[in-house]
Amino acid sequence: MVVRAVRSALEQRPSPPTEVIVVDDCSTDGTGEAAARAGARVVRHEVNRGEGAARNTGIAHARETWVALLDSDDEWLPHLLAMLWPLRDGHVLVGGASLNCPPEPGSDRYAGVLGRRSVVLGSPTALIYPENFVAASGTMVRRDVVQAVGGYLPELKGGADMDLWIRVLERGTGLIVPWPVALYHLHSGQVTSDATMMSGAHGAVARRYAGRPWWSEAAFERWEGCAGYDAARREWAAGRRTEALSRAAGVLRSPTRTLGAAGILLRRARLRRQSGTVDRRGAPTVAFMPGAAGPAVDGARDLRGMSSLAALAALAVRPAHRVVAASAAQGLTARLLGARQVTRS
Q1: Which of 97, 114, 141, 147 has the lowest tally of Cβ within 10 angstroms?
Q2: Local structure of residue 14 (DSSP, 8 states)
Q3: Could you tell me whether strands 322-325 and 286-288 are parallel, antiparallel, or unpaired per DSSP bridges?
Q4: What is the DSSP string of 153-173?
């Protein structure tokens, strides 16, 4: 995995980064040697110090004003630096969305900001609710600001990225673009697969900053509604129905928590729909409607074997970025269903 990560950094277009640093946190499986062969400068810890300390070591050894993070099991898309670098002026961090990629293709999930315009983060409040959508592996950050706020806190076992982004955003603004720049590869053994732990870490990090000028009690309570809804679902799935109903009642007793849960459900529905607009190459997806002429391009969704109604139903569930339509009516309906571009064949 580390070789894939290093290569994805070195294969940025049109230009690679100045340097690629890999921190070998006292591994015993040849990770450092593999990273060096792939072209990285390897810095090794003689004792295992954990994720936060490893990231701090990498940042300390960097020579440039800006650093871009990349976990060893993730992958940059080839346009990450070209997309983010021109946007950095006036901000302390710049990031993009990611695609959460399970081993099986076809069910990737978009993660990041919604809509078609970049979002300026003027404070850390948006990371508390709806969620921390600043992906570590898709973010560039000013090195001097990270060091000024103390870097990563090595003692945090979860929520360390969110904690750092909060302190960084207290020093300036961030810009997040609504387009994937990284692939987050899902696999067993990841810390983020423990939903209960991650939720607890999010809440603990958020509560640490209560009382700051930007702090919003309402935003935190909305997040509690989201966390309560997710906990109720987990309890129900585990067969603990009484506990699930108790969790749900706790959400419904507070109008603010109820609105928070409703808001996160709407956001997740929109994220699922946006997942269909980009593929793992970072290219916009294309769908061919029934009756459309012309050869399907590589990776396109060919819906021409369906009826028009079935094809439109498929687009309603998972829209494509561009739709090749056979008629004006098809094109209009496809646009209403979320297609950003429509072409008549």
Answers
A1: 147
A2: S
A3: parallel
A4: -TT-SS-HHHHHHHHHHTSS-
Helices (H) then strands (E): counts for the chain: 13, 13
Helix residue ranges, H only, the chain = 2-10, 31-38, 51-61, 80-84, 125-128, 143-148, 160-169, 195-208, 217-237, 241-252, 255-274, 308-317, 328-336
Cis, peptide link before residue 14, omega less than 30° from 0: yes
Task: Provide the token pair at 152.
Answer: 């990563």
The pLDDT tens digits of the residues spanning 4-33 come to 999 999 999 999 999 999 999 999 999 999
For residue 290, which amino acid is it? P
Question: Residue 23: phi, psi to the nearest 5?
Answer: -95, 115
Distance CA 239, CA 8 (A): 43
Quickly state the pLDDT bin for 189 (edges 50, 70, 90): low
User: What distance in Å separates the CA atoms of residue 318 and residue 109, rounded to the nearest whole number?
Assistant: 11
With 0-12 CB in 10 A as exposed, 13-18 as middle and 19+ as buried, what is 215?
Answer: middle
pTM: 0.91
Query: How wide is the angle at C-alpha 237 spanned by C-alphas 235 and 239, nearest 5°?
Result: 70
183: β partners: 75, 99
Residue type, position 272, single letter? R
